[in-house]
Amino acid sequence: NILVTGALGQLGSELVAHLRGIYGTDNVLATDIRKPQEGTRVAEGPFELLDVTDGNGFMEVTRKRRPDTIIHLAAILSATAEKNPMLACNINMGGLMAGLEAAREAGSSFFTPSSIGAFGPSTPKVMTPQDTIQRPRTIYGVTKVAGELLCDYYHLKFGVDTRGVRFPGLIGYVTPPGGGTTDYAVDIFYDAIRKKSYTSYIAAGTFMDMMYMPDALKAVVDLMEADPGRLVHRNAFNITAMSFDPEMVANEIRKHIPEFRLDYEVDPVRQRIADSWPNSMDCSAAALEWGFKPAYDLEGMAADMLLQLRKKLVVT
Ligand code: VAH
Question: Which residue has the least CA distance to atom 7 on ligand 1?
């Protein structure tokens, strides 16, 4: 059975539903620091309140559930972290340590994501290698690099089966993102439906790696089910599906909404973060070691996002 932390987040809420569809609802315990709203899919199955920085609480729920796998998603994302570095450290590092200790004691395998945010300005930006310089200048990036190293350490020192990927920006229509730098790539679709226009806080010409949520969900399951004997890298596989700037995604939206207008009000904080990240990552290690292959490109993602949001936003 599986224990998920951060189950109410952008990735967590969809991953819980996806995992329950594969492994059975009762086999996936969702946890978060607050209760799910009635009627949401997370609320349809087992749920417990868990503050991941409470080491005893994390150990207790793990002893009770004895999960085969812990999927640790609770974290503060890049833009929010810059506003509150201490909170980001406590949650992103304290929560991770608590989760690794719980996994070590319970013998659970352990998935936690890193991010394109684990790279910095001195990292090669085009086709960023799997193994390269990592000197991020955001506190989020610092916690992601440290997290990658901690997970490697727990595997090497204690034999914990730790695994993870460096996620690009994730785009989905179920749960809006919270506090990221790549959130514009989701917001633009909501505004395209609601207002036929969007004001971007990221400047034209700023390229970032992105991925449609279905590909992200499949990647987690594929990696966790992969033959461990084939895994050379473990906790930081580069994975991405597309790289675009605001102009490119606006042009894709105009294929469906011709009158869509894009303008800019650049946010210097999030622009600086975005400028320090890669433009496009090399994913050959993930492809080689566990068969990573995304299904959605920009065209396919944009068409499905607009189709799904037309239903979702009209209804509510
Ligand atoms: C963020 N969406 O913007 C997250 C993610 C790759 C970006 O880490 O902080």
Answer: 169
